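Bench notes, afternoon.
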Amino acid sequence: MDELVSIIMPSYNTEQYISDSIKSIQAQIYENWELLIVDDCSTDNTVEVIKSFNEPRIRLFYNEKNSGAAISRNYALREARGKWIAFLDSDDTWGPEKLLKQIKFMKDNNYSFTFTDYRICLNGEWMPYICTGPNVVNKRKMYDYCYFSTITVMYDREKIGLIQIADLKKNNDYAMWLQAIEKSNAYRLPECLSFYIKHDGSVSSGSKVKLITWHYKLFRDGLGMNAVISGALTVNNIIHGFLKKIYYKEAVEN
C-alpha cells in the first residue's frame, strides 16, 4: 500500500473553493500522493491560493491559453507518475479514507477501474440522499449513461494506459470513461467517500436543452459517430439518466 497516487485537478477561477479541495487531499490517511493542478489561465487569485500551501506534493502546471477541462486533464495525465490515477475537481472534496479504502478495494479484488458513492451539496445545502450506481458498469452500461462522478474514480494506469480525449467543453469526463471501459469494467465501492460541491455558475450547471446538446456532441464530435447513432445514443442516455435518478439513490437521515 505504498504506490504513488496521481490526483488530477484542473483549475479555473476557483479561489473560493480550491483551498477546501486541497485540504481534503492533505487530510488523506493514504499519504503517498501527488496532486497535479493545471491552471487554465485563472483571472482571480486561484494560483496564489495554491502556492500558499507550500506543499511539496503539489505539482502546478499552466495552460498557455484558456483551453477547458479536457485539455487540462490531458496535460495532467501526461505528466502523472503514479500507478493509481484519481480525480478531484477544484471545488469538490473527499473524505479522509477515500484513497486508502479505494486502493485496498482494488487490490483485494484485482480491479483496475473503480468508483465510489458520493453526496451532493447544492449552493450550501446537502441533498438528502447519496448517489450510488450499478455494482458493475460494463461497456454497454457505460454507453447507456455515465453512472458515476469523476471525483469518485480511480484506475490503474498500468492496466488502463494513458487516456487522452477530444477537446470537449462538457462531458469530457464521460469521454475518459468510455476509453477506460474498453480495457476494464468499472466496479462500485459502495461507500460515500466523495463530495460533489455544486453551485450556481459551476461548469456542470446549465439548461436541460444545452445538456442534451452536449451529450450529442460527445458521441458525434468526441467519438466520431455518425449523426443517426449519435442521436440514438443521446436519447438512450436521457432515458437511463431518468432511471438513474429513481434507482440509484440512498436516503440520508441527517
